[in-house]
Amino acid sequence: MMKNSQMRVSVGIFARSGSKGIKNKNILPFADSNLLVNTINHAKEFLTSISAPHTSIYVSTDSNEYASLAIQAGAQIPFIRPPDLARDESAEILSWKHMLNHLQANGLGSEIFLVLPVTAPLRKMNHIKGALNLYLSENYDLVFAGCESRKNPYLPLFEEDNSGYFKLSN
Predict the structure, then answer these.
(1) Which of 30, 57, 80, 122 is most deeply buried (CB count within 10 A of its CB)?
(2) Contact 41, 47 (CB under 8 A)
(3) For residue 144, what pLDDT band results from cuts at 50, 70 and 90?
(4) Number of Cβ within a 10 Å radius of residue 49
């Protein structure tokens, strides 16, 4: 799968604690763990499946609790994310740049940096591998996956009603 068997491949996982919609959604029970640990497990499975001798999983978070869970799950925490990169209106790509700059400055840069979103728990391993294969087979700077939304992605998918329950948005 890898063109150069000496390539360093890093996975970046970005998990903010300050969600307005569902508080601490990234660490609430999901399947047999939570969204954060689920994503770390996907990263470990992916990195085990490719032939790259130098691999790392890094989590960027603003939460000491999230950091502790990530370390227990086998990820590394190179820093606690600065508050200005952990707000609702903070562009996630700025957090990517922050992590890449930090890793590079500390001799941990990689030829391939893969971001796995915490809030995409239904991803399939063949999609992750397909993205890597596409990246390696062409002259791309960036490959990303998406899908068409059945609802407007700029609106919340759930709303809290007067009794404190969540219902689908219209």
Answers:
(1) 57
(2) no
(3) confident
(4) 13
How far apart CA 15 and CA 145 sit, in angstroms, is 19
The closest alpha carbon to 121, from 68, 42, 49, 65, belongs to: 42
pLDDT one-digit tens code per residue, 95-117: 999 999 999 999 999 999 999 99
Cβ-in-10-Å burial (0-12, 13-18, 19+) of 23 comes to exposed
CB 143 within 8 A of CB 135: yes
Predicted model pTM: 0.84
Residue 72 has pLDDT above 70, yes or no: yes
Q: What is the mean pLDDT of residues 57-66?
A: 97
What CA–CA distance (Å, rounded) separates 10 from 47?
9
CA angle 132–133–139, rounded 5-degree value: 90
Closest CA to 55 of 11, 106, 13: 11
CATH of 8-142, one of 2.70.98.70, 3.90.550.10, 3.40.50.970, 3.10.20.590: 3.90.550.10
Q: Where are the domains of the chain?
A: 8-142
